[in-house]
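Quick one: co-fold with adenosine monophosphate.
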Amino acid sequence: MLTVFGSVAIDTIRTPNKVLKGVLGGAATFASISASYFVKPGLIAVAGSDFPKKYHRILSRYLDLQGLTINEGKTFHYDGKYDETLSTRTTLKTELNVLRNFKPKVPEVYKKSEFVYLANNDPDQNSAIIKEFDKVKFSMCDTIEFWIANKKSSVIKMIKAVDAVVINDEEAKLLTKEHNLIKCAKKIMNWGVKYVVIKKGEHGSLLFYDDVIFPSVAFSLEDIVDPTGAGDSFAGAMIGYLASKKTVNLSTIKKAIIYGNILGSFSVEQYGLAGLLNIKKSDISKRIKQYEKMVRF
Ligand code: AMP
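Sure, here it is.
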C-alpha cells in the first residue's frame, strides 16, 4: 500500500492569463491523485471546516480518505503568482491555518504501508509520522522554500529519515548553499539519503544514486498554462509506479522518473488540478510511447 501525507490546500494561483481563487490544491492532493493512476493511495492530511463538499468528493473519487481529518478552522491556504513566462513563482501568502500544530494520526490499516510519500509539509510533522509505519520499503519526501527558510534543520532531519528526496533545483541550492547541482546532490546524499532527484521544471530532472547520474528530459510541450503541482504530480507518479511494481532498484526508479515526467506534463496543460483529473490510463501509456520515441537515438 502507498500512503501520502502532506498539505491539502485551498489555493490562489495567479497566472498571466487567469487568476484562480479558492481552488483545490496542496502538495499531497496533487501527489496522491497522480499516484492513483498506479495504485489506490491512502491520504493523511488535515482540512478545515471551510473545506467545500465538492472538493471532498473529488478526493474521494481517487483516494482512500480514512486518514483525512477535518478540524475546526480554515484550510491551509497558499497564494502564489507566476511571472509572464510562467517560469518563476513568487509566494504571496502561506497561511498554515489548521496545518499549524496538526497532530496527524495514522489509521491502523495504513501502518503496514510499504511505500510512504511525505509531500511538501511541515518537516517536523513529516519526521514524526514516518516513525509510525512498521513495514516501510521505500519512503520519499519533498520540501519547499518556505520550510527551508523557516525550519532548515528540521528539513535536514526529515531528509535523513527517508530513502529518497525529490527537490527542485532552486530549493536544492538554497538548502545546500551550493551552485552546482551535482555538488548539491552529493551534499544531500552525505546527510544519509540514498536517492536524490533534482527537478528542473520544464528541463526535466536529474537522479543521483551512488556514483550514478540519470538525467531525464521533460515531455516537450508547446502550451503550458499553470505549472502548479507539477513537482508534486511528478513525485506522486514516481512513488505510485514503484508501489505498483513493489520492487525498488535503480532500474525501476529510472522508469518511475519517466512516469513522473509524464504525469507532470499532464498537470501543467490545464489550470489547477484539471490536467490531472481529466486523463485516462491509456493517455498515460500513449504519452510514454511518444516520450520513448522522442529520446531514442
Ligand atoms: P508545486 O507547484 O509542486 O510547488 O506545488 C504547489 C502546491 O504546494 C500548492 O497546491 C500549494 O498548496 C502547496 N504548498 C505551497 N506551499 C506549501 C508549504 N509551505 N507547505 C505545504 N504545501 C505547500
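If it helps, The chain has a mean pLDDT of 97.
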